[in-house]
Design a protein that fits this description.
With 426 residues, the chain is mainly β. The protein folds into 2 domains: 242 residues, no CATH class; 183 residues, no CATH class. It has 4 helices and 29 strands. It has a 25-stranded parallel sheet that branches. A two-stranded antiparallel ribbon has the order 10-11. A two-stranded antiparallel sheet has the order 13-14. It starts with 46 loop residues before the first strand and ends with a helix. The N terminus is likely disordered.
């Protein structure tokens, strides 16, 4: 029910929220409405928001917006975020984890620019208005808040062929968070030049919020030039839907870089995945869960894998890719660099038939092999029932060094990103 959350700050004709009648919500004073310089003590104050946004709303870049718990853009409302705006999530786990949720029927128009990206980060980040990065957090600081969740009405494949399901990362009985439908052209808004940092708060055991979650998002939505840094769970995950996504860069994820589920059928193009010692997979791809079947396209991706020997409680497998549960789609022009000898590119769990039948395909892959390995060591069939390992020589080229690569992402489009400036990979 909606009463799980407090009402939002009322901001002088900028937005309103609604809550159930039994909410006992505090009144939050509106901020100074006069514009001002960030160094001026009279500059606009930070704004704390929570609850439901039910009217068209704009968040401006002259102040910091603080997410206190879940902020849900309700059906029929549009949240516009101006270029250069900084949004910080409060600390909190389980039902208290902060996140921005764009519910089905709502829209997020968050369009930054290379010079003024929109930044989602933690309340612990000392970044200030007008800046693009702080000084006290780095790629090892994860799970400090939740993340960004966008939900739509595009086709998705669910167990039991139900119409809709609750998105991962939200508590049950929350009164929002369902996604899926029959409109491939559904429009959830426009997301561009956005950096999402230090998220992934835990909702429960094994249930964390992704940096960017896309549930049933339709191809009327624009998603491009997106960065996710230091998320505890997946960097970006698509649960069904049809939305195309391009110019994506992810770094230091604790689980998977790019994760596909429930018959996602859009195109992912021009992406960079940088794994660290906590990462599990660059790609984790699952197939349909119900009778609805469709296929994805992934093209022009560069994977910088991690081969450090450091071991701790959070050390990840750092595999290149895993295809599971009937995965179906195509991967073209994928460049993979270095990694551990265990960094496999693996078919498993009922995906072997789709590979054999030509429904799971690979073309134009290049790799700099991890030290001491062969192509057969990396490209493996966990089922042992296909010619995938033998076929790898036909679609994978082994490179002597990264400088010999002829494919992969166009790295020049990521110059704006925190990752390009701080990771040492550019």
């Amino acid at each position: 029910m909606k009463k799980l959350f407090l009402s939002a700050a009322v901001i002088a004709s900028m937005f309103m929220v609604s809550c159930s009648s039994d909410d006992d919500a505090p009144i939050v004073d509106p901020p100074n409405e006069e514009p001002g310089d960030p160094d001026d003590p009279e500059a606009p104050e930070d704004v704390v928001v929570s609850g439901f946004i039910t009217e068209d709303t704009t968040w401006t870049n002259d102040r910091i917006w603080i997410l206190d718990g879940k902020v849900v853009v309700d059906e029929g409302a549009t949240l516009t975020i101006d270029p250069g705006t900084i949004i910080k999530g409060e600390e909190g786990t389980q039902t208290l984890a902060s996140a921005l949720v764009i519910d089905t029927g709502a829209k997020l128009n968050a369009v930054g620019s290379p010079e003024e990206p929109i930044i989602f980060t933690s309340i612990l980040d000392n970044i200030e208005v007008g800046q693009t990065k702080g000084t006290n957090l780095d790629v090892n600081d994860r799970s400090l808040w939740g993340g960004v969740i966008v939900l739509g009405l595009a086709p998705s494949s669910f167990r039991g062929d139900v119409d809709q399901v609750l998105i991962e990362g939200l508590p049950e009985n929350s009164g929002y968070g369902l996604y899926g439908g029959d409109d491939p052209n559904d429009d959830s808004g426009h997301l561009e030049y956005i950096s999402i940092r230090h998220g992934g708060a835990e909702i429960g055991e094994g249930n964390e919020i992704n940096g960017l979650t896309l549930g049933g998002v339709g191809n009327g939505t624009i998603i491009r030039n997106i960065e996710v840094v230091a998320n505890l769970d997946d960097a970006i995950e698509w649960f069904g839907g049809t939305v195309d996504s391009s110019n994506l860069i992810v770094w230091g994820h604790g689980d998977d870089g790019l994760d596909l589920d429930q018959a996602y059928s859009g195109t992912i193009s021009n992406a960079v995945i940088i794994q660290t010692n906590v990462s599990d997979h660059a790609f984790e791809i699952d197939g349909p869960e119900g009778s609805y079947q469709d296929s994805y396209t992934i093209e022009n991706v560069t994977v910088f894998n991690d081969n450090s020997s450091e071991e701790n409680d959070n050390t990840g497998g750092r595999e290149f890719a895993q295809f599971r549960d009937g995965a179906r789609g195509s991967m073209t022009n994928i460049l993979m660099l270095d990694g551990l000898p265990t960094a496999t590119f693996n078919i498993r769990d009922d995906s072997e038939a789709n590979y054999t039948d030509g429904l799971l395909t690979f073309e134009g892959l290049e790799i700099v092999l991890p030290d001491g390995t062969t192509l057969e060591d990396i490209f493996t069939d966990g089922t042992g029932s296909t010619t995938f390992t033998e076929d790898a020589a036909e679609f994978v080229t082994v490179l002597p060094a990264p400088a010999d690569a002829t494919i992969g992402a166009d790295l020049s489009v990521f110059a704006w990103s925190y990752t390009a400036q701080e990771s040492g990979k550019f």
